Fold:
Amino acid sequence: MSIKDLFHPKWKHSDWHVRKMAIKNIKDQATLAEIALTDKSDNLREYALDKLSDDTFLIQVIKDADDIDTKKIAIDKIADEGLLEIFARGDDNVEIRLAAISCLTNESIIADIAQHDIDKNVRRFALGKLTDDTTIADIAMHDKDASIKKIAMRMVKDEELLAPMLLVDIAKNATDSDIRADVVKKLEDEKVLLDIALSDPSMTVRTVAIEKISDETMLVELVKKAIDEEVRESVVNKLSDENALANIVMTDQSEEVKWAALEKVNSEVLLAEIAKNDSDWRVWQSTTGKLKNEMLICDIALHALYPGSRFAAVKRLSDKTMLARVARSSNDEQVRLFAVKKML
Structure:
């Protein structure tokens, strides 16, 4: 026995037997948490952890313990689904996320993790806990990982759900592009159609998939992600959301796609925004030529990023009050002089 043992509580005694007897009688949760985190003996740390029941101190152990096994034991003792969900979704350590998922019983939470977690190992583990055929079938059709899709497909018991899954498999994997195109015509799931529109090697198959997509959000995503200029132009022809079309005008690198989108923008506010930000002189002329609202034209003359657009706007102005405003307020001397000349 060390002299220090005389001044320390028995759970800090140098003899592990004494510490064990002391732990046996301890009920204070804070003390048990400290022992679970600091005792030199693996067995005694686990012994103290077994006696812990307060979630606050179990969370402390999960956050502060040095070894993963102690963390996992603490996770296993938590019954609160809300706390388990936090660790299942947000912990940096995959092993902790898996341990938390293994304790979860709420299938909607497990399903969401199985469908959306960024780590395929976590998704695969969560999938193994699912029982709802509809959710499993959704994963079989939409997961990015081929191995997870195969596992999910084997898990589906409902034959009615298997049929569309088999169609998707043929649509994506059949060697003959004509067969793929024929099967794509039968598909209704727009997420699957989006994937095919982005990835199929055949332009014919991609076009068939695009024709079946009606969701504007999906179409916008397709324009953003599609490498093929022809695909993007085809999608633009289907879009009706003018905000999305205006954004395409200002961001797409293809002239054909830009002009196809610009032709469908009629909102003067959006046309003015395009005129203020686009670098193409033909776009300035086209957009300012469509504008009738002199306040919007004046705003372009004052705030457009490129001089050519500012001059194009002044050229369209006829209201002398607006011209005077440009002559007074523009930061561009040449634009001010041009506005003055128009007033004379």
Summary: The CA atoms of residues 116 and 330 lie 51 Å apart.
